[in-house]
Amino acid sequence: MSDTKEESNPPKFIYWHVWTDDDGVSHQTRCELTNFEKESMGGDAAPQWNNRLLTSESKIVFAELPVGWVGEWHENPQPQWIIPLSGKWFVETMDGIRVEMGAGEISFGGDQNTQPNAEGNQGHLSGTVGDEPAKLMIIQLEGGRYVELRPGDFS
Questions:
Q1: Looking at per-residue confidence, does 78 or 145 come out higher?
Q2: pLDDT at position 155, please?
Q3: 155: buried, middle or exposed (CB in 10 Å: 19+, 13-18, 0-12)?
Q4: DSSP H stretches of helix in the chain
């Protein structure tokens, strides 16, 4: 059986990369994950597109942000992937960019080592959007090698 066009073209996943520039200012950049390979997960499972992005120590946290929750200006505690499972939340970076994300959208929080701006804001502001809690899955990455990553460093 030959691959159809859809089966032979690897997918692209969109994510927002929250990062710190050389002046200590946080930003958000829309990026793509593109390094997918078709492989089976094992046994008799049919091949699927996988991007084995990282192999490192990590912690997985499930969180529920209540309606009206606001995380005042702060840095991500460590580099982390954040995936909303339900509800909506927002992230506003020091450059004034605000991104709202719902179920299945992806953000990488890498805004460590920011410097306070003239208003004293540092890192990012985040909170829930709408009239339901935001349920999030957070994958925190151990080790310092992820702190300085810039948009496009993941593929």
A1: 78
A2: 66
A3: exposed
A4: 5-8
What is d(CA 48, CA 38) in angstroms, rounded to the nearest whole number?
5
CB 48 within 8 A of CB 40: yes
Q: Residue 61: which residues within 8 A CB-CB, separation 6 or more?
A: 137, 138, 139, 140
Domain residue extents for the chain = 11-35+49-146
- 11-35+49-146 in CATH: which number? 2.60.120.10
In this prediction, residue 147 has a pLDDT band, given cuts at 50, 70 and 90, of confident
Nearest-angstrom CA–CA distance, 148 and 84: 24
pTM: 0.87
